């Protein structure tokens, strides 16, 4: 089992809470929370427990059987491309798909 940033974000979004609110409730610096949710930084065991408690879920609800790192990375990058014209977003998606394909 692996920590899932997608599940972390899903619980936060489902509760309509900001990154700052969850970070503060978990006793984390906002920048650390952001890096964890983006998948740049892996949380420690203590941070996982604190995040689960802050979200009111069991820590196992923040794990998944497998975590496709490159798909998550591409999804994160593309989420920042939303303000671009559709053609540019599609071009970025195509380039990322070619780059991360096995």
Key words describing this protein structure:
434 Repressor (Amino-terminal Domain), 6 helices, two-stranded antiparallel ribbon, 102 residues, 2 strands, single chain, 2 domains, elongated, mainly alpha
Describe this structure in words.
This protein is mainly alpha-helical and 102 residues long. The chain folds into two domains: 63 residues, lambda repressor-like DNA-binding domains (434 Repressor (Amino-terminal Domain), Orthogonal Bundle), CATH 1.10.260.40; 32 residues. The chain has six helices and two strands. The protein has a two-stranded antiparallel ribbon. The relative contact order is 0.15.
Count of discrete domains: 2
H and E string: EHHHHEHH
**Tell me, what's the shape?**
elongated
Structural class: mainly alpha
CATH T-level topology of the largest domain: 434 Repressor (Amino-terminal Domain)
Unreliable stretches, pLDDT < 50, 5 or more residues? none
Strand composition percent: under 5%
Biggest sheet architecture:
2 strands, antiparallel
Number of strands: 2
Number of helices: 6
Helix content: 55-70%
Radius of gyration equals: 15 Å
What's the CATH class of the largest domain, please?
Mainly Alpha
What is the residue-averaged pLDDT? 81
